[in-house]
Specification:
Radius of gyration: 54 Å
Structural class: alpha+beta
Largest sheet: 3 strands, antiparallel
Shape: rod-shaped
Strand content: 15-25%
Strand order of the largest sheet: 3-6-7
Helix content: 55-70%
Number of strands: 8
Number of domains: 3
Oligomer: single chain
Length: 203
């Protein structure tokens, strides 16, 4: 379309007006697009940062749960170790002198044989009184250390307490399968056998 020229009052032609509306509109659209893209980029960056933060929180939460589990397991292991150590310590205290006691038992046997040998002597005999006194002190020492004699004679034979040396015909019917005679006394230390009774079984 040809541009129309207008004349002013003095008869001179005016230059046609240049319309910049289209150009301005295009510039505004471009500026708006840039702004929209910028806003979108900001939103994407914000979302990305949020996602990374969420991932870090989740990772830290998992790590915390793992550390908590390890801590609980460690506590349980330590508690078991403490209980086991205490039990071992108690057992050690109970049986600490076992080897000493076991070595003393033959001395007790000798004293008992001596007492049998002195049984025909008068009770006021100084030698017999001395043997009885020493034997009583030994017995008291064993009692204080938790040593008890295993009862065997005329009891049912028990492999957990008795060691059969031989078998003989039972002198009485009710003694069949029972201990007829004790050759060597057995002893318990805090309910643990430290020496089996050597016995003769009736059959």
């Amino acid at each position: 379309m040809a541009e129309e020229k207008t004349k002013n009052k003095s008869g001179q032609e005016n230059e046609p007006e240049v319309k910049e509306n289209t150009n301005n509109s295009h510039a505004d659209t471009t500026e708006q697009d840039k702004k929209t893209k910028k806003d979108k980029t900001k939103k994407d960056d914000k979302k990305s940062k949020q996602d990374k933060t969420d991932e870090k929180i989740e990772a830290l939460g998992n790590e915390l749960l793992e550390l908590k589990d390890k801590h609980i397991r460690l506590q349980a292991e330590f508690d078991n170790y403490r209980k086991r150590t205490m039990k071992e310590k108690m057992d050690l205290i109970k049986s600490g002198g076992e080897s000493v006691i076991v070595n003393i038992l033959p001395v007790i046997d000798d004293f008992e044989r001596a007492l049998i040998a002195f049984s025909e002597m008068k009770d006021d005999d100084p030698l017999k009184q001395g043997i009885n006194l020493i034997y009583s002190k030994f017995k008291e020492f064993l009692k204080q250390n938790g040593i008890t004699e295993i009862e065997a004679k005329e009891k049912d034979f028990d492999t957990d307490l008795h060691e059969a040396v031989t078998k003989i015909p039972a002198p009485k019917e009710e003694l069949k399968g029972k201990v007829v005679d004790v050759i060597q006394k057995g002893y318990l230390m805090n309910d643990k056998v430290i020496r089996f009774s050597k016995v003769v079984i009736g059959e």
